[in-house]
Amino acid sequence: MWQGSIGGWGVAFSGIDFRGSGSTNGSYVQPDPVVDEAVAKTQKAVLQVGQAAQDPIHRELMKYVLDQAWAIGFPSAGSYTLWWPYVKNYHGETGIGRYNNWNWSKYVWIDQDMKAKMLGR
Question: Is pTM, for the whole model, over 0.90?
Answer without folding.
Answer: no
